[in-house]
Design a protein that fits this description.
The protein has about 450 residues and is an alpha/beta fold. It has 13 helices and eleven strands.
Length: about 450
């Protein structure tokens, strides 16, 4: 990156957001979410909906609660930065998964209670004989179940990511629309004018979120295109791609954050993938992403022609040292391409002349797979940095630690001087889980362990 592209000095960097700020904003957004989930249940509380007994009302409450949870899934994945900032969007996506399971469970329980206690209300299963509203409900339940199965077992089913993602969105919209039709057709909750108004407002909220995701946001991205200016090979079957803005640019990112990247396609095509920034946050507006050839899209990244148009949705994430400005030092533990966001942190700290003690533990299979190893050695001269490389298949003359990043490897690699440091972990989930257990055994408190969830989609 050219010297003239060096961005704001450390004093002009984005203002760090403290843990107190995150807790306060997080509490507000949790309350908003719970209120939106509970809103349909108020329709049961305000007046009768059938008068068929406790089991009937309980079933309707389960169905409405599940429907509200499933409808709000669109908002969870809309990437509203204000809403995701207190938690980190990776956490939001994991919550999205568990919320979907919970919502489906509630809807399934709603159906089963009616099936065994009020079979006449459901009518026959044959769609040629059943009321259309009941057929719509059954179809919605089936689609929700298919969404869950294809999401949790996507890799086992060998579903290509882009096609799965498009199909996932289509099925989700269809399931929610069918559920809404089921509620309208059943008529229990829409007989009164005020209830019809409430449902109209609620449906308008979901419609606005869909319009924002599929129309407004792609249009905003289209106004800020980037152009590929360099595609550079790295060790370990990885590539670093550098983008320069052509008209406008995304908000300044913090070291360690990530973005959704669309290359050589329209942002309306929904063909985007999340990648961490690997360049220095002090050298914007140009952007760097380091991408390992692992899947259908990433295997072609090295063949991207210079000059290709790209779009960037970001920045996202709270995996950044900027939220720990008072830390005495940092320990970075990376596995494979998990070094990418950590390189962003190291480059940024070097550009800021940060002299706090730093420790990097970098795990790889072979010595030739170690990404950025020459630059890491150079950074040792610009930072107060200690580096420990760990190899699974070391060369014959290797004198360093070997194996996976288990407790027997990590514990002796962390000197006592780093006990009060903040720890950043990024790598495959088994590595993250193992290292977190090790750090907890070493007495590191949870609030000083920051983990990037490597596989969130």
């Amino acid at each position: 990156m050219n010297a003239e592209n060096i961005g704001p000095a450390v004093g002009d960097a984005p203002r760090p957001r403290t843990s107190r700020w995150r807790r306060g904003r997080g509490t507000v957004w949790v309350a908003v979410y719970l209120l939106l989930v509970a809103f349909p249940l108020l329709l049961l509380w305000r007046g009768p909906v059938g008068g068929n007994g406790w089991a009937w009302d309980f079933s309707l409450a389960l169905g409405l609660g599940g429907f509200a949870i499933m409808g709000l899934q669109f908002a969870l994945t809309a990437r509203f930065r204000r809403a995701t900032a207190p938690f980190g969007i990776d956490i939001i996506y994991y919550f999205h998964r568990w919320a979907a399971l919970s919502g489906f469970g509630l809807i399934a329980a709603h159906y089963l209670i009616l099936k065994f206690n009020y079979p006449a209300a459901l009518g026959p299963a044959d769609p040629r004989e059943a009321p259309w509203s009941m057929t719509a409900g059954r179809a919605a339940l089936g689609l929700f179940g298919l969404l869950i199965v294809t999401s949790l077992a996507r890799r086992a089913l060998r579903l290509e990511y882009d096609r799965w993602r498009i199909g996932h969105g289509v099925m989700a919209v269809a399931a929610v629309v069918l559920t809404g039709a089921h509620i309208l057709g059943a008529g229990h909750l829409t007989a009164d004018a005020w209830r019809r108004l409430a449902w109209t407002v609620y449906a308008a909220l979901w419609l606005w979120v869909l319009v924002y995701i599929r129309i407004v946001k792609p249009r905003l991205l289209q106004r800020m295109p980037y152009r590929v200016v360099e595609v550079r090979p790295e060790r370990g079957r990885a590539w670093t791609i550098t983008l320069a803005p052509t008209a406008g640019s995304i908000p300044p990112f913090r070291a360690g954050q990530f973005a959704w990247l669309t290359i050589a396609r329209s942002p309306f095509r929904a063909r985007e993938h999340p990648f961490s920034f690997s360049g220095s946050a002090a050298r914007q507006p140009d952007l760097q992403f380091t991408i390992k050839a692992l899947g259908d899209f990433t295997r072609t990244i090295g063949r991207t022609p210079v000059g290709t148009i790209a779009y960037v949705d970001g920045p996202h994430g709270v995996f950044t040292p900027d939220t720990h400005s008072d830390a005495s030092g940092f320990v970075f533990i990376a596995g494979g391409v998990g070094i990418a966001p950590i390189m962003s942190m190291l480059r940024t700290l070097a550009d800021r002349n940060d002299r706090r003690p730093l420790l990097l533990i970098d795990g790889n299979r072979r010595w030739d797979d170690v990404m950025f190893r020459e630059e890491i050695e150079t950074l040792r001269g610009r930072l107060h940095l200690r580096v420990v490389h760990v190899l699974q298949e070391p060369p014959p003359d290797w004198a360093g630690p070997t194996g996976l990043l288990t407790e027997s490897v990590v514990r002796p690699a962390v000197p006592a001087a780093f006990a009060p440091a903040v720890y950043f972990l990024c790598g495959p989930k088994p590595m993250n889980d193992s290292v977190q257990r090790t750090l907890r055994a070493l007495g590191v408190p949870l609030h000083r362990i920051q983990c990037e969830l490597f596989d969130m989609v």
